[in-house]
Amino acid sequence: MTITTCVFDAYGTLFDVSAAARQAAEQPGREKLAACWQALAADWRNKQLQYTWLRAITGEHTSFWNVTMDGLDWAMDKHGLDDDPELREILLALYWELAAYREVPAMLARLKAAGKACAILSNGSPDMLEGAVEFSGIGTYLDAVLSVEDVGIFKPARQVYDMVGTRFGCAPDEVLFVSSNGWDAAGAAGYGFTTVWANRAGDPVDRLPHRPHHILSDLTTLPEIAT
Amino acid sequence: MTITTCVFDAYGTLFDVSAAARQAAEQPGREKLAACWQALAADWRNKQLQYTWLRAITGEHTSFWNVTMDGLDWAMDKHGLDDDPELREILLALYWELAAYREVPAMLARLKAAGKACAILSNGSPDMLEGAVEFSGIGTYLDAVLSVEDVGIFKPARQVYDMVGTRFGCAPDEVLFVSSNGWDAAGAAGYGFTTVWANRAGDPVDRLPHRPHHILSDLTTLPEIAT
């Protein structure tokens, strides 16, 4: 089956989610953060994800912005930074201005030149996604920015992946789904999409019921899979 | 409302789950493991839990023994130990002979002396739980060992917490639920149990919709809450 539609996860896949803590650590007077920003960013991300999964199981959905704040609060507490409300505001503000990974604009341009529909499918709140898309300047390549807010549950619930067919009228096997999150690629593979895991960190493949069809170290060569 | 029934999570709460990797690291000729066993144990546990949550969301249940093996395979791969099938077997075998934390037998004895029903409610497979209960010698204090296998979904799905009322005929507010996993204590609090988080690691409280009612550093003083 020919791929007609390329769908991308947002955070960690198109946008560099560790950028927020790294950039804040580079500011003057942030020595305490500079010493721990990598662990802080990892804990922030881990708790953010855990909270999405736990809320999906118990049916207690909230916006991704809320779990982003909740994850940061846990991580700042863990690293003894919870007495610094100014730092909290700086880190949260940076989350609205995430950079795209460097290969992303040219990769999306190639897909559009090949006639593919391109979209984001993300846990992110519509306003968070709008901010990141605008800041990174990739909006011109995107036919849709789909947020789980429209279905009220986080990935990898099937209702989220259903949004692609609803929006584009395509069958699952016409969709190439791309995520840097192994569990998201696995969930999408189980749904029936052809999947690419952008394994930026060089991690082992997740031992879940479904495996990604392709594994790349970044997105540079993605158009060769899609076309 | 009087507490009639004390229900315990198993792994990390009554049984020391990091013991398997630590004991294996102490064996002669295991220098490579000795250098990384703490990170290996943490990654093993993290992936084991992630896989339970992801399978609960997608409805792809399997036994806890399977996700325990899956998590270990990921962690051994991550740490460059995936070329050592003998080590894999040693680590998995130790999982069937986990020690109870030192304060556990006397704590359970006090609860029984006070007339409380005591039970385990665990993600673990019945055979894994049977092995750990037998090895640790705490079976004499337990009125029931409840496994999620009977409902076919992992915590914190409500169906799991339902098992307590089904078994003991008690109302949620008669139950004191105890877990070292903050997310499990939070899920049980949302269900309606009175909850204790055994915060053995000194971690920040999870920013989830429900908070534990009590936080202890270990289980020594638990009977004072229950009685």
UniProtKB/TrEMBL annotation, chains A, B:
Enzyme Commission numbers on file: 3.8.1.2
GO molecular function: (S)-2-haloacid dehalogenase activity
Catalysed reactions, as listed in the record: an (S)-2-haloacid + H2O = a (2R)-2-hydroxycarboxylate + a halide anion + H(+)
Keywords: Hydrolase
Task performed by this protein: Catalyzes the hydrolytic dehalogenation of small (S)-2-haloalkanoic acids to yield the corresponding (R)-2-hydroxyalkanoic acids.
Family the entry assigns: Belongs to the HAD-like hydrolase superfamily. S-2-haloalkanoic acid dehalogenase family.
Name of this protein: (S)-2-haloacid dehalogenase
Organism of this sequence: Primorskyibacter sedentarius
